[in-house]
UniProtKB/TrEMBL annotation:
Source organism, top-level taxon: Bacteria
Main localization of the protein described in the UniProt heading: membrane
Record has Signal as a keyword: no
Entry keyword annotation includes Transmembrane helix: yes
Listed transmembrane segments: 29-50, 57-80, 86-107, 114-138, 150-170, 182-204, 216-236, 256-281
PANTHER family: P3 PROTEIN-RELATED, SODIUM-BILE ACID COTRANSPORTER
Protein name, entry field: Bile acid:sodium symporter family protein
Record InterPro entries: BilAc:Na_symport/Acr3, Bilac:Na_transpt, Na+/solute_symporter_sf
Alphabetized UniProt keyword annotations: Membrane, Transmembrane, Transmembrane helix
Amino acid sequence: MFLIIPGSLVLGFFFSAHLQRFVHAVPYFFAFVTLTMAIGCGLQQLRAVINRPGVMLWTFVLAHVLSPLIAYGLGCLLFGADSPYVIGLVLFTIIPLGVSTVLWVGMSAGSVPLMMAMVVIDSALSPFVVPTGIHLLFRTDVETDTVAMIGDLLLIIVAPTIVGVALHEWSKGRIQRAVQPIAAPLSKLCFTAVVMLNAAAIAPQAEALRGDLLKVVPAAVAIVGLCYAAGFFGTLHYRNREVLITVSYATGMRNISLGVVLAMGYFSPLTAVPVVLSILIQQPLATLHHYVLQKLKKRSASVGG
């Protein structure tokens, strides 16, 4: 995945005109990815997640309180408090957790049930969190299409999760082993398609914002990297690798579709620049984060051995 994800982004940009017609299929590809992950989760694992609300609450604090404050401080330092780029950096940290974290967490041996629960809850709260966060920091109001957001959430996360858990319980956990040889590579192909199609969808906006790229790219890379770091270092005290992996991905990645819609629909083009860039950067950095986690795992295993 280290080369596939960045390659998919590049292909999405280069072939944007040809891929635009397929963008509407993204929720269905994502639904299949979620289903593939959910068939490995039973009611017992979901109960374990519900019984650990502290981890979820701490994740939301890291993602939507600490990260926005870091973004605000970094933006003010680099561009000044009145710059629209500051609003863009903060907006990226306030939008809900990205659905694609589920696949990354699954590939990195994190807790898929915990990640699914956090995505669902955070997305459900986003109609309140996003406008409140923007208003508190900038005294600017923003409206979101709550009904459309809930509909996407039901299709991408809730329905596939219910079906997957039901299949897991019905088969007593045997279905995952039975379908994995086919479902696992298919889900990775679907996720690759999601990355490529989202890049194709964003390409026109990124092209229009080319003049600001050199100015904001370093700041966008820094804030996304700091979001990953906040989750990683913020969970070291748990001394639990599964929690560390899950929370670090959760704090580092945001909802692609909602981020672009909010940035392009409710703010100035300059405000949208950091959001679009951060959304593009989060996938390559997720690949790098996965690589680092695997290296740390091998190192700890060699030390333990």
